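Why does residue order matter? Because the sequence determines the fold. Keep that principle in mind as you read this record.
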Amino acid sequence: MAAAIALFFLLQFAEEGLYDMYEEKFADRKTEAAVSAVQEYITKNSLSSGDAPVLQPLLRKNDLTSFQIFMDGDFIYNYSYGNNIDEALSTEESYAKWEDSFPLVFSDGQATAYTDGVSGSAFMNFILVVRILLSFLLFFILIWVGVGYILRRLQHLAEDIRILETGSLDYEIRPDGRDEITELQKGLDAMRQSLKSQMDQEEYLLESNRELITEMSHDLRTPLTSVLMYTDLLKLHKYRNTEEADSYVQKVEKKAVQIKRMTDNMLEYALVGMNTTVALEAPEDFSSVFFDTLSDFAGYLSDRGFEVKSDLSWPSVKIRINTDYLSRIMDNIASNIEKYADRTQDVDISISCRTVSEGAYAGIAVENTVLAAASHEDSTGIGTRSMANMMHAMKGKFETEEADGMYRVKILFPVMAVRSDETA
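Structure:
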């Protein structure tokens, strides 16, 4: 609209030039043709000078703006802008100064006509119409171009949606403007990312569950076989004395406890897997979260004969946790250390910070020496999987590594903010 209005007023300068060209090349010829038509009418109808007023319709028809007739110095007729004016407005000499003169022959003698030519209003109206049409044409061209641009973007967006419908969630929808369509593109891409994240999480859980079923079916078979064997021996009384029978009962009880522990771990793993979205608490300072937790953790291990060493330099960051999940993770770590760690070696606790593509993370690392004689026959790894699931639910990372007789576990949480009065 602004461009069309601007063009309308810019064409006004061209209009002035065209009018000058019109007056120079066309107006004089049209005036001569109009006066010739008047003379032809006078001759054809044998009009006298006294009949001059009957020329008014003919003058108006030929678009003459003014027409004054003098005969022998006398003012006999005055026509001005479509009206027959009776009184004389000036002398013949004054008209001769600024109007063109043409001879007219009446039946009673020759006269002189003065006129300033044909009116330019028709030409100016024509130019005005052209200006308006050109402005509207520019308006509709720009509208057509703009609508075409929008339609092409919508068609491209529709093609993006068809690609997503095929399941290609890795296909990125790129915003290409700054309007409502851009917001729609951003919203669709955010929905794609959210859906992809959910599907990745579901795939992760399904794969974990498949591995769990495979491993549990194998791990449960061993203790169950032992239970069945010892119960058969007891049922058939295949023992030498009551002491041997009591040993069978103790072995059955031990295997039953092992099976119970495995099924409890499996239940916890299943519950965490189903409840993958947990309510995280408000962001807290890292030191506030871990100070009491690590104190209790170190105290528990010390009571069971472990020497705990810590190198704690609290980072000035905030994290979000679920207290129940964090407590269960720390309990599992302590339980694993109690079962598999060498009490003659130190348990080291340190702060771990890391920046990856997803952002900054902060947490703790616990390292211990693995007991050489430790038995892993009742370990299914499901406790580790449960901790990994709980950290996954809290948007964190759970990492383990074992090398050269050392076992290390890390739990890392996304960093939420840096305190303004401190440096991380």
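The first strand starts at residue 66 and ends at 71.
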